[in-house]
Structures are given as structure tokens and as C-alpha cells.
Amino acid sequence: MCGIVGYTGPQSASIPLIEGLRRLEYRGYDSAGIALGTPGKLFIEKKAGKLSNLENALDATLPNVHSGIGHTRWATHGGPTDTNAHPHVDNDEKLAVIHNGIIENYTELRAQLEAKGHKFSSETDTESVAHLLSDLRKEHEGDLTAAMRDAVKALRGSFTLLAIHADKPDVVVGVRRNSPLVVGVGKGENFMASDVAAFIEYTKHAIELGQDEIVTMTPTSIEITDLEGKSVKAKEYEISWDASAAQKGGFAHFMLKEIFEQPKAVADTLIGRLSDNNQILLDELHMSADEIRSLKKITVIACGTAYHAGMVAKYAIEKWAKIPVDVEIASEFRYRDPIIDPSTLIIAISQSGETMDTLMAVRHAKAAGGRVLTICNTNSSTIPRESDAVLYTHAGPEIAVASTKALLTQIIAVYLIGLHLGQVNGSLKDTEVRDLYKELLELPGKIEQILETVEPLRELTRTFAHNNTVLFLGRNIGYPVALEGALKLKELAYIHAEGFAGGELKHGPIALIDQGTPVIAILPAGHEHSLDEKMLSNIQEVKARGARVIVIAEEGAHVEGAEHVIRIPVAPALFQPVLATVPLQVFAYEMAVVRGNDVDQPRNLAKSVTVE
Ligand code: F6R
């Protein structure tokens, strides 16, 4: 939820720290701050608001020192003010701490520390850690790592913590529990951050950390220990993303860049998935043919946009593999008594791999004996590490808060799983799989075609910019598309938007239609059950009540009653979401731009939601 970065090395520390924070700002952007390792007393600056406020406050007197920590915040405890911004310091201002997550027992700790004479200045849970660490460090005769070890034992909750002390300013100490932290291994310099994007410009060597592992880094050393102080072997890996992937590359916003990266993201996720003898290759599933044949149920858990990919999974997997699929919002899953046994496959979908609601649902499923397969875009993040199997999507870093390319690749992953399960359990013939896979390979080109013709849609969008309600209608596989269109519009344009199944309209929502209400209808592809005709009737129903209707329809499909028709290329009906979602992303993007909203960092949101 917050972004964290630490640096020690030869550079003037404020440069990699501010650069890192800029890359992490998607994680939280209501305040930002840095602590620099000036000997004697730390240099601290922190400001409410965007990172640019902090940058403006850092004037020419900025010390040229070589270590520090930086933080960009998404407020949980205490509003977004200068005082509540991180870093938090002890009373000598010699020790500074930054934190992502929640310290659940902070009230108790604060009372104990205040009773010992510590003076608190903020309303945050984090400040308790600064005071606690300060005491523990004294007990351990200046050993910050030993102090961190004891502090962690006293803390409840989820956290990534980084700390620095003015007496040994080139040492940065970090720890993680249920919250992300990666180490970047440089030459004569080292980094720690919530996400590799923060240091990818400087190094592509990273170390993943396990739960409760403590990192002590200097410019030339990285030591990882467990809570007992025992040395832990570093798990190093190469970062496959390149630095340019985390930059805007000439686009006005990351979101627009990411929308335009979708053809490549989809193509990359599909690469090498069909063998010469037409078998879907998904070794990552780690499931034998017998295990697949004995599956009785699949439950998909995810949040937000990823949940919409889960809804697509239901249609695709039930159709191809004939296995019943439930889709559940992750935050609801573990608070009922879900029936899970070894014949249930749990599929978790998460772009970041850090979403706390999804992580907790995964843990619940595993504890109940379920097998968990995760679809994820972020290498070595927590959810994949705790799952039995992982299928990585290849969307590359998604920086804009609103998810676009990650969704399309999640849907592709879901198709691959559906085809594989159906092929192995005999519901699909090899030739059917081959033909469907060929159609999948056509999708990147078809997305490109849509993107080449979006300009008129952008113009049209501007005529809706002052509406306060927009409704989306879909049927069958178009229903999750309608939900996604509405979610994108809400989060980016701050407009009341709802997605409905076309057939539900007459059961209540039609009362929302008024003169001029925009309604975007996704005309079902294919003609199964005459769903397209049913949607055309829904269009007439809303039009008769004054709605302005935009229809998304396949090339050549018959459309009536629409003020505007957005054409998408023809594809098998189940693949329609990959195409029909794209104009809706552009619609939401343009609405946000016209309304003057912050596209990449919409209000009140954060990219990675690491609190429940
Ligand atoms: C919406 C959006 C969110 C995320 C949700 C899950 O545009 O981005 O709804 O989809 O927070 O995030 P991940 O996929 O990281 O678990």
C-alpha cells in the first residue's frame, strides 16, 4: 500500500531514493518523505501530498550523503499530514523508520513507550516502532539488526520496515512480514524496495525475502538472518523487466502506454503454449493427468479487476473442461465456511501478488487442504510464493493504478488453463484445442486493430464527460466486461457507473434510466441462444426511456437503436472480453482526462492493497 525504498552506496542518496519513490508512487501518494544518513543527526524531510511536494521542499541545502530511506504513503492510521508522513523518528532524531502495512498492537506499544518517557508526535502506528527500536538498539549496544529482531518479535500485524541510524549511517536494516520487500544487489551499492521497479535502473539482480527475514545492508554487503539471528541463504534472481518498461515512453500517462502495450502483453503470455502435437503446455500447474481428472470443483478468488478475469474463467472453464467453477471476491471467501477438499482447485488471480485480501483467502484455502494455483504478474511476490503452483502472466510492470494489460493477460492465462484442463480430462479434442489456440494467437493483432481506430471513440467520449451516471450492459461473457467497464469509469472518472447483466435490467435498474443517461451495451458475439437479439431488445427498452446508447459490436453484427456503434474484430464468442474491454478502457481513460483527474493515480486508491 505504501512504497518503500532504501539505499546505501556511492551515489548522493537522495537521487536513487527520489527516483525510486517516483517509480513506487503508484503504491500510495498522499504523502512522501526521506531520511538521509547524515552522521550525528539524520536529515529528515516529509510532506503531505504528492511526491512533487517533497521534491519542492528539498532545496539546495540537501546533504550530499550516501545512504537513506524513502517512503510514499497510502494513509491507514492518521490522516495524510506532514506529521503523519514517514519516516518516523525516535526522540533523538538519530533513528528513522519507514513502514508499509499495519502494526495491530500499536496502541498497547505506544502506551508502554509513553510510560517510559517517549514523546510521540504523530497519530500513526509506525511511530511506536521508531521508539521501540530506539530502546532496543540501546539494549543491544548499537546493533540495529539485533534491535530489529527483537522489535519484530514484539509486533503483531503485517509490515515491511526499513530503519537507519545516524551512528552507523551506511547500514540500512529491513524486514518483512506479509508485506513485500526485495533487495537489489548492485556493484558497490545496494537497495531495498517494495518493488523492483524502484531500482531496476541500477541493477537487475534481486534477492527475494521470506517471512520475518531481516536484511542488513551496507554498500558492499548484504546479510540475511532469521529471527533467531541465524544466517539465511539468499535467493537471488534476475529481473526480466527492463528499465524502459517502467517509464512512460512518450505517452501522456502510464495508463495509456499500458493500454497500447496490450497486444504485446497478450502475445508474450501466449508464447510457446502449444506443442507440435497440439498439447497445451502448462507444466507450471504441477498437476498429473489423474489429478486433473479427479477435480470436482474450481473456486476462483480475486479482487477488483482480477475478479472480472475470474468471472471469465467461469464461462471458459465450464464450457471447455466441464468442471463447475465458483468465483468469489477474495475478501468474502474466508469469512464464510467454504467447502474445500483435495478435489477442489483454488485459482487465485492477482496482478501484484501482494493483495492482502487474496493472500488471506489463499492461506485459508491452503489450511483447509485446497490446492492453490495462482495467476500472477509479479515475480517472487508473496501470493505465488505461498501457492502450490504459479502461472505468470507476461504483462510487464503495470504502473498505472487502474489495471489494463494485467487484466487481458489474466484472461489469457484463464483460457490456457481452461483449454489444458479440458484437453487432459477429455472434454476437448486436440483439434479443437489447436483451432482455439490459433484463434488466441490472432488476438494481439485484433487488439492492435482496435487501438488503431480509437480516436473517434476518444472524441465521442468527450460528449459524455458531464454525465454523472453511466450504465453498462452485458450478457454471458459480456457481463464481466460490463462490470469492468463500470469499475474503470468509477475509479478514473469518479462517475457513478454500474454494470448489469442485460436480463437483470427490468428487475430494477431500468428505473435509473433518464433522459440522456449514457448506456454502453456489449452486444454478445456469436448467436448462441439468440443472446444478441435479447440484447438488442434491452437496447430498445433503455432507448425508449431516453438513454443515449453506445453499442460495442463485432464487425458485421446487426445493430439497432444505437447512437454510436464501436466495432471490434470478429473472434470466437468466449474470446470477446479480450477485445470488448479495450474500448471501455479508452472510454474511462478519456473521461478522466477530460474531467481533469489524475489518470495514473486516482484519488483514494493505491495500486497494491496490502491491508484487509
Ligand atoms: C482496478 C484495479 C484493482 C485491482 C485489485 C486487485 O483497476 O486495479 O481493482 O484489480 O486491487 O489487485 P491485484 O490484481 O494486484 O490483486
From TrEMBL:
Top-tier EC class: transferase
Protein's GO biological process: amino sugar biosynthetic process; fructose 6-phosphate metabolic process; protein N-linked glycosylation; UDP-N-acetylglucosamine metabolic process
Annotated CDD domains: GFAT, SIS_GlmS_GlmD_1, SIS_GlmS_GlmD_2
The Glutamine amidotransferase type-2 domain, residue ranges: 2-220
Catalytic activity, EC: 2.6.1.16
Coiled-coil segments on the chain, per record: none
SIS domain span: 288-427, 460-602
PROSITE patterns: GATASE_TYPE_2 (PS51278), SIS (PS51464)
Subcellular location(s) per record: Cytoplasm
PANTHER family, alphabetized: GLUCOSAMINE--FRUCTOSE-6-PHOSPHATE AMINOTRANSFERASE, ISOMERIZING, GLUTAMINE--FRUCTOSE-6-PHOSPHATE TRANSAMINASE (ISOMERIZING)
Name of the featured protein: Glutamine--fructose-6-phosphate aminotransferase [isomerizing]
UniProt organism field: freshwater metagenome
